[in-house]
Design goal:
The complex is a heterodimer of chains A (about 450) and B (about 450). Chain A has about 450 residues and is of the alpha/beta class. Chain A is about 50% helix and about 15% strand. Chain A has 17 helices and 14 strands. In chain A, the strands form three sheets. In chain A, strands 12-11-10-13-14 form a five-stranded parallel sheet, with helices on both faces. In chain A, strands 3-2-4-5 form a four-stranded parallel sheet, sandwiched between helices. A four-stranded parallel sheet of chain A has the order 7-6-8-9, with helices on both faces. In chain A, helix 4 crosses helix 6, helix 12 (about 280-300) packs parallel to helix 17 and helix 13 packs parallel to helix 14. Classes of the chains: A alpha/beta (about 450), B alpha/beta (about 450). Strand 1 (about 5) of chain A pairs antiparallel with strand 3 (about 90) of chain B, so a sheet runs across the interface.
């Protein structure tokens, strides 16, 4: 059995948790652990979003590690409040705090009581770096935030929309779609502004945006929750919490990315709210269909490899399948088995096979990509090595995107976003083909180096 | 308690900040970051990793949970003339059961698997926070693996919480010393020295910078014996005792190693700097003079004349564009900050704020002597302080790393990357032109006029 991870395809739990907290208005995160964790994660996030990302640390030293870090954490909270004046504080643990056995829940509630900070809410989330990937950390923090804030509230006519880690542009698009439909909603977590601020003067250290705390509090009185997460498996989610504690019906859908998935999302919202899908969205759907037809032949030459957060991979595989860019390797660094369970029937239906990898690293992904003759990769920047070493072009999608600008602006959801996502895939296939075909044909036919069936390009499966 | 005070400085931070001319007292530095202040600093592991990672043909194995390895995978711009092994990120990816029952078995298995798959003579095993807490006996595991495979398996004691980034530099130097020393069983001082040869310490070959310097020294008849650690290998590091002189670029990370090598192998050392025209020329001359060779000095003078003739008019051209501009500096080490102040002086820009993550007392003294009255000097700063002082001092430009860049841009301030992940050299004469050119590209961009 493999005992070493070679080039990781996932990050650690607190990293995911930071995103969830950045989606709450005026919230500030402190990591309980040594200084490096906060700094590394800030660096990672800042490079993708090109945004300042302030995350505090309790900066545990040797003494705190041996005798307990309560004093450090309390001092950290003091300073965070003094410098940032947050409305909401997220405390995430790191490996270190978990291992020395810090009872962060107790420390935080004791702290708020001691200081008489009644106006301030906080949520402590246990996110040991060895407890799962960033994807699990994200969902866990969403769950804990809702659990900390939601109170029994009178019923109202809004729906809750809970999203996984998609781009700020994606979040804005989902909000646009819901607004076009005339739906009242609370979208959580909403970091579309906090991690993609417009340029304003003076600079806002605590950017406006994020789901309003009052809205999260009253998610309990919503008509229903639409949670665009299917891969959580047994992990408790915010949507499930609202259903269990407050009886808010939960509808689980895939991310509205892809024609079928967007249909599912819109129809779910329609069913819940009774709102019609307006003509303009119908036109967007028609335009996507038109785009799919325009590019279908190019796409049919794609043999894709997808990797990253299970939920994002699930949606992107959907786009590949409905466009004939057949996935040959489907991988996640998370040890998530739901992904394969969800996708297997679709592959069976198409009489196609793909190689599924869970808990994958990039060495295994690369091996399989070569073995299965992939010619396009879809996922984060870390996939650049597939290009560098194996010549497989990469469509950047998800997090992190460190080697290009605009990761935060990548739009992939809804009919419009899907068309843009599909164009990125198709154009990558085209670029690769056009860059290589003169040389390839010359070598194959003129020089006679083609050992395979002469002239054969398109074949059913391989 | 005192709640929100906009723009105020946290009480515990006051001794870390100093405005030149206001009070004559030394700056507090080299201590742990203060909780909740959003320090820009990383950890011990980070310090060790930046120093050792450029060793190209080593397996760099991070013993810990996945994050530490994830966040450091090939994020540095160190180039290699040979092996690419160092560009991989290996982790034992500790899980909960490993934390409970100990990670030694997993580490042993990981080393075995890696060594089998990637033939190498050298493995560095980095300890992360968790390893220090659960008490895995890294020393024993590495020793056994070393005997089993007949290669060097060297533990790097870099648990994140045992100090700050500077402690990581120290840990890296210890690991390097172990590598250099093992197997040298004769009287170390008797290692035969290569005449006119130097070890170049503290250059990580970002964007080929070590190669640029090598090309300067070669015509002077001076051989670079070993580079620490940019583009270095197991073999080249082993050969380090043969040099006649150690020259140190990044003093923060390498001063300790140089002192130790002087004691062990009798190699004298000299601080040099290849950042900026003035420093580059001065350093080349000093190195040539050290060897007491008229020929080398003459060659250095020729090279300096030739390069300066090309470079100076270019820089002068830029300099004219920069009149009245003010810069802020926030970088990793004190040495780099000092060099930058000089470099800004060369291009006619005044530095109004200087900070570092890990500067040492003597470096802050030097900085304080160099800068103008009213310049703010700060150790281990955070975004709030950077914002406050850049605004107060009306800086037009910030030099820093990845985390500082978005802050500068959000404030409408130009920015220079002086980080490990940059893709253009800033060393030597070519680097000095690149620096001025980069300043120009950001300071004089049309974008700023739309922000008024």
């Amino acid at each position: 059995m493999k005992k070493v991870n070679e080039n990781s395809c996932h990050m650690c739990m607190p990293m995911g948790g930071i995103f969830s907290f950045k989606g709450v208005e005026k919230s500030m995160v402190i990591l309980h652990g040594s200084q490096g964790c906060a700094t590394y994660m800030r660096r990672h996030i800042a490079e993708h979003f090109n945004e300042p990302v302030d995350v505090a640390s309790s900066s545990l030293n040797e003494k705190g590690t041996i005798y307990g870090g309560e004093k450090n954490l309390k001092q950290g909270l003091d300073n965070v409040i003094k410098i940032y004046n947050p409305k909401f504080i997220g405390v995430l643990t790191t490996c270190l705090a978990e291992t020395i056995g810090e009872d962060v829940d107790r420390i935080v509630s004791a702290y708020l009581k001691e200081k008489g900070l009644v106006h301030l809410s906080a949520a402590a989330v246990s996110t040991p770096g060895y407890g799962g990937s960033h994807s699990e950390g994200y969902l866990k923090a969403c769950h804990q935030i809702v659990a900390a804030l939601a109170k029994k509230s009178p019923g109202h006519n809004k729906i809750n929309v809970i999203v996984p880690n998609i781009s700020p542009a994606d979040i804005r698009e989902i909000k646009r779609i819901l607004n076009i439909m005339g739906v009242d909603f609370t979208l959580f977590p909403d970091y579309s502004n906090t991690l993609d601020q417009s340029f304003v003067k003076p600079y806002q250290k605590m950017p406006t945006g994020g789901t309003k705390i009052s809205d999260i509090q009253s998610m309990s009185g919503a008509v229903a929750t639409v949670q665009t997460v299917l891969t959580a498996g047994k992990q408790p989610t915010a949507g499930a919490y609202l259903e269990k504690e407050f009886g808010v019906p939960l509808y689980e859908t895939p991310i509205p990315l892809g024609l079928e998935n967007t249909d599912i999302f819109l129809n779910t919202v329609k069913r819940i709210t009774g709102k019609e899908i307006p003509r303009s969205l119908g036109e967007e759907r028609g335009r996507l269909l038109d785009a799919m037809i325009d590019s279908h032949k190019y796409n049919f030459q794609g043999r894709s490899i997808l990797f990253g957060d299970p939920e994002l991979v699930l949606a992107a595989v959907g786009v590949c399948l409905e466009n004939g860019v057949f996935p040959v390797v489907v991988a996640s660094g998370s040890k998530n088995t739901r992904l394969q369970q969800l996708l297997q029937p679709r592959f069976n239906q198409l009489n196609r096979e793909a190689c599924f990898l869970t808990g994958a690293d990039f060495v295994s992904i690369r091996e399989k990509a070569v073995e299965y003759k992939a010619n396009i990769a879809i996922g984060s920047s870390e996939g650049k090595y597939l290009t560098e070493k194996e010549g497989i072009p990469l469509v950047r999608f998800g997090f992190p995107i460190h080697d290009r600008v605009g990761g935060q602006r990548l739009l992939s959801v809804g009919y419009n976003g899907t068309a843009m996502f599909l164009d990125r895939i198709t154009n990558t296939l085209l670029e690769n083909k056009l860059n290589n075909y003169r040389r390839k044909m010359y070598e194959s036919f003129y020089r006679g180096e083609n050992k395979e069936l002469i002239g054969a390009e398109l074949r059913w499966k391989e | 308690m005192s709640v929100f005070e906009p723009g105020s400085i946290v009480e515990e931070r006051k001794d870390f900040i100093h405005t030149k001319g206001r009070q004559k007292k030394s700056l507090k530095c080299d201590s742990d970051s203060i909780a909740g202040c959003v320090s820009q600093r990383a950890c011990v592991y980070c310090g060790a990793r930046v120093v050792l990672n450029p060793v190209t043909d080593a397996v760099h194995l991070v013993h810990g949970p996945i994050g530490c390895a994830s966040y450091t995978w090939d994020i540095r711009g160190s180039l290699s003339s040979g092996s690419e092994l160092y560009r991989n990120s290996f982790s034992t990816d500790l899980q909960e059961e490993d934390v409970i029952f100990g990670g030694e078995k997993k580490l042993t298995a990981a080393i075995d698997q890696l060594v089998e798959k990637y033939p190498t003579k050298l493995v560095f095993v980095y300890a992360t926070c968790i390893v220090g807490v659960i008490g895995d006996d890294l020393e024993a595991v590495c020793k056994n693996a070393s005997l089993r495979h007949g290669i060097e398996v060297i533990p790097v004691e870099s648990s994140g919480f045992i100090g700050n980034k500077a402690a990581g530099y120290r840990a890296a130097c210890h690991a390097l010393l172990r590598l250099i020393n093992s197997g040298v069983n004769q009287d170390n001082n008797k290692v035969e020295k290569i005449p006119m040869s130097v070890n170049y310490l503290g250059d990580f070959n970002l964007a080929g910078e070590a190669w640029i310097i090598q090309n300067y020294l070669h015509p002077l008849g001076i051989k670079v014996n070993t580079n620490f650690t940019g583009d270095s290998t197991y073999r080249s590091l082993k050969d380090a005792p043969k040099a006649s002189l150690n020259i140190i670029q990044c003093a923060g990370s390498m001063a300790f190693l140089a002192k130790e090598m002087e004691e062990m192998f009798g190699i004298p050392y000299m601080n040099i700097s290849f950042l900026g025209v003035e420093d580059t020329s001065g350093s080349l001359l000093r190195i040539a003079e050290f060897f007491n060779s008229h020929k080398a000095v003459k060659a250095a003078e020729e090279l300096i004349n030739r390069e300066e003739e090309i470079v100076k008019p270019l820089i002068e051209g830029y300099r004219r564009e920069f009149q009245g501009k003010k810069a802020a500096v926030y970088v990793g080490g004190g040495f780099k900050a000092i060099s930058l102040i000089k470099q800004f002086r060369e291009i006619g820009i005044e530095v109004v704020m200087v900070g570092t993550q890990t500067g040492r007392p003597e470096e802050y003294e030097t900085i304080s002597d160099m800068v103008e009255e009213g310049t703010v000097v700060l150790d281990d700063a955070n975004p709030t302080e950077l914002e406050k002082f850049m605004m107060e001092k009306e800086a037009h430009l910030l030099v820093g790393g990845v985390k500082e860049r978005p802050l500068a841009y959000k404030l409408g301030i130009a920015f220079i990357d002086h980080n490990h992940d940059r893709k253009h050299p800033l060393s030597g004469f070519a680097g000095a032109v690149n620096f001025a050119g980069e300043v120009y590209s950001t300071l004089c961009s049309p974008v700023w006029k739309y922000l008024k």
